[in-house]
Design goal:
30% helix; globular; 6-stranded mixed β-sheet; alpha/beta
Length: 201
């Protein structure tokens, strides 16, 4: 979350889908031996992860995440987080951060849903702003996904959905422990937390 107003904590939220496909990255091997990773065919199973990056001046940056497992794409069910799940994530973030939140998020249709706006308007601890229509370069959450894909997800052939979710959770926990990595994702956007403006007396 990016601080943009006189409130204790702010954040940028992003959602990402993960499947069992293999994220490839350059690696090393013995001369003359090409590394080979065998991957099974595409799976209809999928995970979504919603994760606000939380920033507050003078405090350690934090990452709060919630994974969701979608059992089968063909069943016609929702393939991403629902409005109620975003609502519950905001409530949990408010409780963990212990103060008001300024939320900066993209223009996903669920984020702009009338009922979500009504929920935000009804609570004085939550203020929301939207990024421009297509601006992944302004969203530190995109940096989190990049780090995740280049570390715990890279060059891994997942044997089953449980293997995938274990690696996802492990990778996200590692990022949670590295506040410098979360800070770096904000720095890459060119945005900075700001101090509250003093009110004229």
């Amino acid at each position: 979350m990016v601080e943009v107003a006189a409130v204790p904590a702010t954040g940028v939220e992003a959602e990402r889908g993960q499947t069992r496909g293999c994220w490839r990255r350059p690696t090393r091997s013995r001369r003359g031996t090409t590394p080979v990773i065998r991957v099974r065919g595409r799976s209809q199973r999928r995970f979504s992860i919603a994760a606000p990056c939380c920033y507050k001046l003078g405090e350690r940056s934090r990452l709060i995440y919630r994974p969701k497992r979608h059992t089968d794409h063909k069943s016609g069910g929702r393939k991403s987080f629902a409005r109620t799940e975003y609502r519950d994530l905001l409530i949990a973030a408010h409780q963990q951060l212990g103060g008001p939140i300024v939320l900066v998020w993209d223009n996903l249709n669920v984020h702009k849903d009338r009922r979500m706006r009504d929920f935000i308007d009804a609570h004085d601890w939550d203020t929301a702003y939207h990024l421009p229509s297509y601006a992944p370069d302004l969203n530190p959450g995109e940096g989190i996904w990049s780090v995740l894909c280049r570390t715990s997800q890279a060059n891994t052939a997942f044997t089953d959905p449980d293997h995938l979710i274990r690696r996802l959770r492990h990778g996200l926990r590692q990022i949670q422990y590295r506040s410098d990595t979360i800070d770096g994702c904000l720095t890459a956007t060119g945005l900075t937390p700001t101090t509250p403006r003093l009110q004229a007396q």
